[in-house]
Amino acid sequence: RWQKIFTFSLWSKVAVFWNKMFLTIIVLLIVLFLDAIREVKKYSAVHVIEKAANINTNTFDHIQMKLFRSQRNLYLSGFSLFLWLVLRRTVTLLTQLAKGMASHAALETQVNDATEAAKKYMAENERLQEALSEKGSSKTKESAEATNEKLKNEIEHLKVELQKTSNALQKANNEVSAVKKQSEGLRREYDHLMKEYEQLQVS
Fold first, then answer.
1. Record's InterPro entries (predicted)?
2. What's 4-64 look like in SS3?
3. Predicted TM-score of the model (pTM)
């Protein structure tokens, strides 16, 4: 069902716009993060100077408010930038996992087809050998031997193809397992970061 949904032509048109929007948001978050760092440094220095000088209380409170806002903006922009990158990576891993699962299914189908064809040719080979043993004619023997040799060659070829397909299937299984492990690790890291972010919001 999801494959049918994601094969709509609408998503291919939105993909270009989405990439541009992602880069725009990343640039915007980086600018906000750098600006927040600048504001924190600025008001931290002013905060120390004003505290040492023991000037007007209202001015000192105003500087503390500015410092608090700049620190808040720093945390929000930093976490937003990081979580946005995590989201992008998660989407990439899910896409790779979906492609790996699709190729895995295709390789399994190929392996099953090759196995069935090999069994069919082996059954035909056995029937020809039985027919050869029943008939004593030399011409029939020669023709059956030629056919038998041809079938043996075809069986060997199918065995080679089956081995190649099995190797490809094993490789695809390894890739899918690696992507699953990486996706699981990323999910645990994301949950851990969300807990830290909630603790930071509470504090």
1. BAP29/BAP31, BAP29/BAP31_N, Bap31/Bap29_C
2. HHHCCHHHHHHHHHHHHHHHHHHHHHHHHHHHHHHHHHHHHHHHHHHHHHCCCHHHHHHHH
3. 0.48
